[in-house]
């Protein structure tokens, strides 16, 4: 430990210099150094008063207790000031390592017991009124959680929110129905019950889809349709689902669903969080495994009494991949003594469960939910929407013409030449190297669409294997190569005779693509060149070596 | 299987440590030993997958903590070789003068081993996971912390790309150089090239290290290189022996790289192909990995008060990387600082005042002498004279003048030059001018050196091949760096300074392009982040929005 040499300072300087030091041992070292050197009264007083100031503070630092220096009686006294469990435990350990005195060990252990015991009364909480809990506030309100949660509610059935898109059920909706079916069949057997799978479908013109859910495993399909609900909107969808969950009806005899499942899609995540909050429960998001089992819990928040175990029955165990994806957390949603957490809800990652087969013979009940849509809920309007392109698929063409940074001298024209060449074939696609995708070229509007990532060929783009691959101005980096070298015939056009692509081309045309591509196009159009034959390994260019054209 | 009960707030830990390099590992181990519930987040698929070092891990006698205090088995399990010989090679053209600086290397050194970071860090991470698990935490890989969680303007946790935010009583930013957390807290910025070094390195396969260097398996050699190797760029080279490979690289002043528009990979090649190395590299050159990373210069950026609210900075994130002449000490200080931060929090918690952890940490850095090494007073005093261009010129001219040269010879004949070099006192206060890096060693070599006879047959791989050999998990459609200004003036420097880009190379991250619109020609820069090795250089030298890639994404080093 580097210490301060007090003799280097005047008394006036020393004050500010030690202002930062609060560690008593260090201060004592400095004091000692002062005694051994200049031994100035003023300096010593300064240091002593600072030591005094921080010693008190330090007494509480039992980590520094020197057990070997302490009699058992000393220890007993010191222990009375300690009520930190970890500190006591570390003392116990140190005693065991250092002197291992029975009497001292007993003393520490008994202190541990009394500290642990005193905790109990703290934990046993009574429900406080908001005024008691927040005396500092003018108008305290109860924590929101306690406003609407039910008391002694009855809960039944497993509800599945079935998301739809473009007039069809999403696969994940069907996957959840299949899983819910299996879970509830087992549940009914284990608990000798008769609870159901309830599908919820909301949207415009969805009665048919609601009916379809029965074929995938639902016993009841509750739906709500309104032409204003053609696109998902947060508020009305939430209000409708929550209303369905809360209101009665002659098809059911319970207060709220026991379990709810939502898809972990963008809309499903949005809806699930809000609905579960609305119903004053919680949500386990992005789950990939579900099972129902009892669970023995010792956490006092849940049992109400520390040190007691309580068995919760029919608990939905919701497994979600943990952070890293290597481990799973299993999330439980359990009632507290003073507050119920139902429905137990999860959102489910698409693809987690098997897609069930459709069974047209299954029977079930179709229920149309009644509710007046409050115009307030519809304040947010969807004014425009776009369906993302599924992208360009270059893998099913006979021919692919690909362009690279060799077009740099006149990028738009270079791309045009490539497109023109592709047009001379019956079935050709246009692709690009990554160098084009990430370049800063300013392409003219009509050609720009050809230069986007969706047309990139290679390791991080598409992998293609057409009959004929024409690579113009592409150097042939390994990451490009892996996307095209299974092509039957590869023709490269490049000004650089040492370009790497030459190593894996069947034909290498050394030349400027701005000249070579138009020549190829013209020759093809005129029928002078039969590249198809070239590709088939027949006529055309020389004997597989280099050609000039 | 872990059971988590649903709660209404974010998950809370007593401590969250971001980054599992030596700094993070030390902090977490010490926290766990203090019984503190600690969660460690590491963005690599595996700890070490993102990390690069030259590779001498020091255990200083004067350090408050060394890595084997915290991980007693580390030397047996995860380091390469103890470094038992340490030489400085002064190079001028093909003339070389060697000095034995083993005594400088051994000054205040309990031991020093060469390490490869993937191996070391992933071993450390396993130990950390075992220990933090016992206190209710653990280590998660593949998680990128992307910022700080604030409540009422106060830092209370971290936010991540992959998981929900996490709250903690102590937040440790051990996330290395280019710390996103330190930046978010406003404690560090990435603006000035002169505050950083750039390190580039090749790991070279060499099964016969013992024979080539004439050493036993429990011995190792370090060579440092300075002189005119690097075309006037200030910096030095290194060669360290690993178990069956070599770490060869160089560390440059970033401002000098920028000024000279130098290509780091070419400078590295100049070292690799120098005839001096031929006797060690022999005929067959097999490069197994090319890597680079920024290195902070503690003399300029070590934060003297590296904390804010519940956040503390540790290691490179706090600029705690000491360049002591040729000796580079970052890993050891990260370890010391990490353990001190953990100690500080443990005390603060015992005193029921966890918020005081930052202050206590700051004080411990000072009292333990760590801060004094990072920011030596002597340097502060010498710098104003030493770094003034004029003085540099005068000193340079003096050194290169016949009189200076005669003096040098005289000094050398009585062993004074070697002694001067060996002085830890001198090396701590070396000014950042070209004199110590270039002029002096060059003159030494010219005047005192002997020509090297060997011929080098080494042909280093091209950049394209180097990139091709690396492993990437590209986050497609999600570039982690965005160019804010693509003009050559703002970002053109990155074309040369980026270790995986080069002028006239289309396969790099940064490329200069000419675009012509309506007859107007403009020079601009374009960026593709796929070949990026996350060194951090362009965060300083170009105008970018710079983040690390998401957890597990991007480059994956196998040696480091
Ligand atoms: C070429 C070169 C040579 C060097 N030579 C030496 C030498 O010989 N001796 C020496 O002691 N030092 C050397 N250094 C310096 C040394 O490597 C560093 O000082 C040291 O690694 C710092 O340790 P650290 O724990 O602070 O940071 P790092 O080792 O960089 O660890 C930071 C960790 O945090 C992770 N991380 C970063 N951001 C996030 C985030 N947002 N979320 C989650 N995780 C994140 C990283 O993946 C990494 O694992 C050298 C450096 C270089 C580049
Ligand atoms: C992790 C990772 C993933 C990657 N994934 C992909 C991927 O999926 N797909 C991909 O393509 N790349 C990918 N890359 C990038 C790849 O490494 C190359 O950088 C890229 O393919 C280069 O594109 P290019 O050939 O168009 O440009 P360059 O390499 O610059 O080559 C241009 C070529 O054009 C030639 N030329 C110049 N002028 C003319 C002219 N007038 N006429 C004819 N020829 C001319 C030059 O001689 C040169 O050979 C990836 C890189 C990494 C690191
Ligand atoms: S793009 Fe930036 S961070 Fe990536 S390697 Fe190049 S300089 Fe380093």
UniProtKB/TrEMBL annotation, chain A:
Signal peptide: none annotated. Keywords: Electron transport, FAD, Flavoprotein, Transport. The keyword Ion transport does not apply. Residues 111-144 are annotated as: Disordered. Residues 130-144 have a biased composition (Basic and acidic residues). One of its GO terms (biological process) is fatty acid beta-oxidation using acyl-CoA dehydrogenase. Residues 158-382 form the Electron transfer flavoprotein alpha/beta-subunit N-terminal domain. Gene3D superfamilies: HUPs, TPP-binding domain. It holds the Pfam family ETF. SMART domains: ETF. InterPro entries: DHS-like_NAD/FAD-binding_dom, ETF_a/b_N, ETF_a/FixB, ETF_alpha_N, ETF_asu_C, ETF_asu_C_CS, Rossmann-like_a/b/a_fold. SUPFAM superfamilies: Adenine nucleotide alpha hydrolases-like, DHS-like NAD/FAD-binding domain. It comes from the Archaea. PROSITE patterns: ETF_ALPHA. GO terms for molecular function: electron transfer activity; flavin adenine dinucleotide binding. PANTHER family: ELECTRON TRANSFER FLAVOPROTEIN ALPHA, ELECTRON TRANSFER FLAVOPROTEIN SUBUNIT ALPHA, MITOCHONDRIAL. Belongs to the ETF alpha-subunit/FixB family. This is Electron transfer flavoprotein subunit alpha/FixB family protein. It comes from Halocatena pleomorpha.
